[in-house]
Amino acid sequence: MKLLMNDNKKFDIVYLTNTPSFYKLNLCEAIAKRGVRILIVLYGYGDEAVNTELSNNSRWNFDFEFINQGNSNTRNKIHSFFRLIRLMRSIEAKKIIYAGWLAPEYNLYSFLSPRYKNAMVCESSIFDVSISGINGWIKKRIINRMSVILPSGQPHKDLFDSIGFNGPKYITGSVGIFNKSDLLPKQTISPLRYLFVGRLIEVKEVELLVSAFNRNGLPLTIAGDGALRDKLKAIAQPNISFTGFIPNEQIGALYSAHDVFILPSKYEPWGLVVEEALFRGLPVIVSDKVGSGIDMVKNLGTGEIFESGNQESLQAAIETVSSNYEKYRKAVDSIDWQQRDKNQVEAYLKLLDK
To answer: How many structural domains compose the chain?
Structure first.
């Protein structure tokens, strides 16, 4: 537990989330630097590479508390729930932010907390969430416990519009703040060099990507590891290279050595990696199941969106970006990242006006 800075245990925002992802911690830090007293509550560590180690010696301007030690996937949810109750009874909070509806202990607590205090951050979009059946009924009950929604982008806002949520909805424009300290100069070469970064698992649809580049012969780098690694290597032609897992602090050099980023996922609530690629100057190609596609690609003109699972549609997007590369690159370079981060923080600050 780290309630060191705030001895009276009064907080403006208590953020109930899963694991200490670096981009969520960066966001909380930016909010805290605006004079907001914030406590982030976590239920353990995950296997994701984005997790950051936290300790009482961590130099953050916010406070944090783990209600479960160890792996989040093996936590005892009942124990976590009662630890959460004890924690919340020991502090005061103006607003409580819930990270979606996937944590049972947080969902239950939303029924104990006054509705006017409750707000939800939502990375899920209308592309990937079903609101039918018993699961949909449960989601609606949880959502109805919220007074404010913080959707990541337009498709995420559309989800709440579709179920009739009539409270305030403040679009954040992202799921957090990624690291921006390793921007390196890059030079475009011909033919364009294509890049995928992510886990090598079925939902990322990397096999479709390999099949497309086996056919077109263009240079593709696949960075990441996962269950499909050996299968993908076995079917890939020599124009496709595999780097294995690349630590986040080394990812800047990888982007600078490539020209176009592709994310072919058949399910991707947001896709922070799209923002990371754009920041480092790469136009992007994403499937129509990538949550950030509307806000970061279509609306900004930074690349192309193709039909998920359709290899011909993917190839057409590759050809379009190749033929119009300078147009897309100009749009990428015009993004004001400082303003985007500021807008994201201010979406959270609006909670305190309610």
So the answer is: 2
